[in-house]
Specification:
244 residues; 2,3-Dihydroxybiphenyl 1,2-Dioxygenase, domain 1; eight-stranded mixed sheet; 14 strands; 41% strand
């Protein structure tokens, strides 16, 4: 079963500088550790069980799926959904027309020496960035997610992801199969866009396409292709904070 947004990924050039910047924005940022693929990260854990991963490369790796995104400007680049049965979810996604890679193993060495491990499946081809990558923990989930969930800016969780696409109908068909929901048609005056909205637990996914030449999504799609455009963060006082 899909358990909701596990985390969103923000790629940066300099991890130390990003930790400072996000701390100044009122977030409690916890060093995460190193992956064996040339990346290291820091985490912002949220009260709704999700987290924000700030990730940078400590050595170049052009084979990493986020290396190109960093060259395109970085920022919000991907999102992950948790699963308690990743093999079944891969089968479901494939039945819905979304290619998912076979399971691979992932790991991260925390600063305290504890090695975390998980199972992972990434979407491939044209679905990279518009379908989530899936994760199932092998070590305890509570070890992977920091316990520090209070933030000066009063952020408590992720409320929505806005994902720029160029083909709403295909996305709608696939997600309708995965979530057993036809979705809701939406319009965005701010983005001059139309699309479809799906929900998973408390999380909202808005897949939107340009509805005119003035839409900022046109340039986004030209430069970065279909991909996450922005994340709305929930706060104690109800005011949303946007990340992109």
């Amino acid at each position: 079963m899909l358990t909701g947004i596990d985390h969103i990924a923000i790629v940066v050039t300099d991890l130390k500088m990003a930790i400072r910047d996000y701390t100044e924005q009122g977030f409690t940022v916890v060093p995460g550790g190193r992956h064996p693929l040339g990346t290291h990260n820091a985490l912002i854990s949220l009260a709704d069980g999700s987290y924000i991963e700030i990730i940078a490369f400590y050595e170049p790796n052009s084979e990493h799926p986020w290396w190109t995104k960093l060259e395109q400007g970085g920022g919000l680049v991907d999102f992950c959904v948790g699963s308690d049965d990743i093999q079944s979810e891969i089968k479901l996604f494939r039945q819905a027309g979304i290619f998912m890679n076979d399971i691979t193993s992932g790991s991260r060495l925390r600063p305290d020496g504890y090695r975390l491990s998980w199972l992972l499946s990434m979407p491939g081809g044209r679905f990279r960035g518009i379908a989530p990558f899936l994760i199932e923990d092998q070590t305890p989930h509570e070890e992977r997610v920091p316990k520090e969930i209070k933030h000066e800016n009063q952020v408590t969780g992720i409320s929505a992801l806005t994902i720029a696409v160029d083909d709403v109908s295909t996305i709608r068909r696939s997600y309708s199969v995965i979530l057993q929901d036809d979705g809701q048609e939406i319009e965005s005056d701010e983005l001059n866009a139309v699309g479809v909205r799906f929900t998973l637990g408390t999380y909202r996914f808005d897949f939107v396409a340009p509805n005119g030449s003035e839409s900022p999504l046109n340039n986004w799609l030209r430069v970065r292709g279909p991909s996450p455009y922005a994340a709305a963060l929930r706060t104690v006082i109800g005011k949303a904070i946007l990340l992109n």
